[in-house]
Amino acid sequence: MHCYIWWATLTAVQLLQVSAVFRSLRNLRTGKRDGSVARLIMSFLDSRSINALMHSCYTSLSEFNVGDYVYYESITDRFPTFFEGAMIGKGGFGSVYKCEDRSYPCRRRVALKVITKASVVTYRSWKKIVTELEIMQDVDHHNVAKLLEVLQTPHHLVIVMEAGDGGSLMQAWRLAKEYKYDVEVLVANVVLQVAEGLDYLYHKKGIVHRDIKLENIVLSHDFKRVMIIDFGLAEYVKQCETQLFVPCGTAGYTSPENIRAVVERRRVYEALGETMHLADMYSLGVVAYVLLCGHMPVATRCFSSLYQNMLKGIRCVGPHWANVSDDAKSLVESLVKTNSFERATVAVIREHPFIQAKTPLIVEIVQRHMHKQTETERREVKEWVYVEPLSDHWDMIEVETVSAEENRGLALRKGSSTFGRVGFMNRLKSVVWD
């Protein structure tokens, strides 16, 4: 896929215009992809034919119809309020925008995941997108963001989703600190509702999310309702059967099972569906850990060191935990167990003293927050969410391209602290090995 065709008739500019999927073809004699077949084909073409081929490549990848989804000439034909400046997130295949849906006032505001067709050039990539759509169409739960509709334009596939008017969990955490809300109450409400959503996904639908983190959890405008979003890495599993899984997720949040596979340089690893569900619970534990103390559990640049620290066990100790209740610490430690089958399930979470004591108090935060919005945040409410600067794009890394040396000390750029002086781990990219 990453081979380039070096033929004399193409200039460097022309070469870049040829879509990557057409730069190499499978050689039936060797069984491998290389540029020899393409070079042979190109040797018979003149400059006009080459230009026509480049145009065909672009058209075939950017203007084809995707399924039976409704077709519009532009996104603004369906959403007149859509504009590029409303971007609130960016991923491997597209971007997410906030938007007002004037055709359905009951929806108020929605989130648009805009996928550029030309950026998805492999069958495997399209299969991921199709799986994401199938999963979102299949679920219906209070704690999972709903898929509202799917449409397409000549160049884009647009996924319209229910939006959390209160913004992401990270934004809610910042407001809770600013307005001096009881953060433990917010954490208890989030942990319980996300756990309920994950339990529904796994036990009712046979789905695991595989990328639970602060950015993939949103809240309603009053902070009462919590929703899981972004099913780009989610997949169907068989609960009682061993399956092969590709290690994926966000570094720092993903479970020891995933990190171990990366350290051992395995493209896939065997696991039960239950194990993958409990991996989601581990990620939820990391979310709670960060919200309560403002730091990631393990801060290291190296996957091997990360895994070794995970094996030692994660404890809620140190000066950052001085003002956190023992019950809160107990809940977090029950979720981030190294052994997946020792991790807390939703049944355990429901009965945990921390949840029992704190979740009823969310009513007080709801009342205070609504009052605060009425008094001082009318402008922010009209704008829906606080649009923050985007971090760098996620780094998509193939396992076979990472050397042993790089794997031992994969250097990821440091970013500015999200939680005061948190360190670089809160800016680690989503890493997907595919």
TrEMBL record:
One Pfam family here: Pkinase
SUPFAM superfamilies given in the database record: Protein kinase-like (PK-like)
Record-linked PROSITE patterns: PROTEIN_KINASE_ATP, PROTEIN_KINASE_DOM, PROTEIN_KINASE_ST
GO molecular function annotations of the record: ATP binding; protein serine/threonine kinase activity
Coiled coil: none
Keyword tags: ATP-binding, Kinase, Nucleotide-binding, Serine/threonine-protein kinase, Signal, Transferase
Lineage top rank: taxon: Eukaryota
Residues annotated to bind ATP: K113
Signal peptide positions (record): 1-20
Cited InterPro entries: Kinase-like_dom_sf, Prot_kinase_dom, Protein_kinase_ATP_BS, Ser/Thr_kinase_AS
Domain Protein kinase, residue spans: 82-355
Protein family according to the UniProt entry: Belongs to the protein kinase superfamily.
Name of the molecule in the record: Protein kinase
The organism of origin for this protein: Trypanosoma brucei equiperdum
